Amino acid sequence: MWLSDLLDTVRASAGLGYKTEIQLVQQHLSEAFPPPCPNGDDAAIIPNGNGFDLLAGEGFIDAFVSSDPWFAGWCGVMVNISDIAAMGGRPVAIVNALWGGNDDATADVLRGMAAASRAYQVPIVGGHTNLRTAQPRLAVSILGRATTILDAFAATPGQMLIAAIDLRGAYQPPYNNWNAATTAPPERLRGDIALLPMIAENGLASAAKDISQAGLLGTCVMLLESSQLGADVDLHAIPKPESVEWQRWLTSFPSFGFLLAADTANVPALLALFHQRNIAAATIGTLNDNGLLQVRAGDASDLFWDIKSTPLTAMRKPHA
Q: CA 291 to CA 118: how far, in whole Å?
């Protein structure tokens, strides 16, 4: 029963629960999503000439910004860059909205953003500032560009599900944020994130999502929900630090973590790109058309999510 108990705990996690709130957006704004680029990807896709502009944004939980303002500022830049990379794009520029006071906490948010901007070499070009509020709050948006898209709606049955995660880090208390970024050499951070557009442009994968606050399995649900697919996932194939228990790892938010859907023939080359940069990457499952996310561990197997009967974000193919 340990696998069933583990999956029950992951399903009940707060990070996964936050994603259900996206259903309200789908309910009220679905008619505003122009085909063929519906909302639900990590960034909005806007065709532009021979390529695409990408737009993404992130807002941060008040308690996170208050408890670790410098890291919240860093994450404001980092997670937006990850969203652009998950689409096969390269970041161009960032804007932010900051609320706070004329105090050290607000200054730390700005210092963290500036440090990440320097590390990733992505400029912060504008935004909105209000220093007359009682509590610091932060929202950050990003512009990116791509020539070839990695689209969560483009996964197909029979493809392999790949997880790529930088394990060279540690938890940043008090939350389950796996930080493999703030102490890494900036050149390495930029080279690692550049892998994703390289993968897209070389046709090595068709779909991707960055592993978000929903954790690895929750992010997998969102990928499957977009493409209306199912997957069989091997728990023990998932890259994981040896010292971290599964319950914590499956609800963690890694600073560099991606799920990709790729044809079998492309898997060796895809994995080699990550391994050459010492990023843990492995085939963790196979995509199918049954709409079920099934997780196995040795001889045990259990259902984590029924995509067709239980919406998570409710973001799906328009014709489905």
A: 42
